[in-house]
Amino acid sequence: MIYLIRHGETDWNSEKRIQGREDIPLNDRGREQALVLRKVFEHIPLDAAVSSPLLRAHDTASVIADAHGLSVITEPDLIERDFGILSAKSYEERDNMEALFKDSPLPGMEDGLVLKRRMMAVIERYCASEFKNIVMVSHGAAIKAALRVMTDDDLSRKNVWLKNCCINIIDKDESSKPVLVRYNLSPEEFSQFMVNPLE
User: Fold this and answer.
1) Could you list the pLDDT tens digit for every one of the 199 residues in the chain?
2) What distance in Å separates the CA atoms of residue 53 and residue 136, rounded to the nearest whole number?
3) Partner residues linked to 185 by β-bridges
4) pTM for this one?
5) Which residues are catalytic?
6) Which of 124, 125, 129, 150 is the most core-located residue (most Cβ within 10 A)?
7) By the 8 A CB rule, do 33 and 104 touch?
8) Where are the domains of the chain?
């Protein structure tokens, strides 16, 4: 089982600014959110904790890993999408720029297909690994790209906003192919699901 988690809140999240490869740390609320995750995973057996190299993800993973005596494995391909000229912009500024470049790629932005491929490569590799229960911490756009693949792009039609510290549960089929079980669960929703998985 892979528990794919979005990192805790940062100041840029709270300011509603586009956050890509910039190494913005968790804010106080983000650190509190990570502690809630630690408590939620306290009694769930974990074999590995894996994270993007960016501080906000790595620190979120470390809080969970420490409770299990694990070291965090850094996976470069779990890094957030490079948003190019959109980085640090507000959502309103993003909309204006997307309108300006409506028929051409935004300068410096990572291609969506490349993003999907690298995220799925990491997930598939860990699905086929010897680890049974894995916490994997990444970022909003990166996680959403993987979820789109696993839902045949249904997530795009629903326009889902991934919460900070949301938990996405990934199992695997008989051929070790990743299968999405639940997505965008708050820690409280996740705890309830673990108690009553059939509800």
Assistant:
1) 999 999 999 999 999 999 999 999 999 999 999 999 999 999 999 999 999 999 999 999 999 999 999 999 999 999 999 999 999 999 889 888 888 887 778 899 999 999 999 999 999 999 999 999 999 999 999 999 999 999 987 766 567 889 999 999 999 988 889 999 999 999 999 999 988 765 5
2) 12
3) 167
4) 0.94
5) 7, 80
6) 150
7) no
8) 2-195
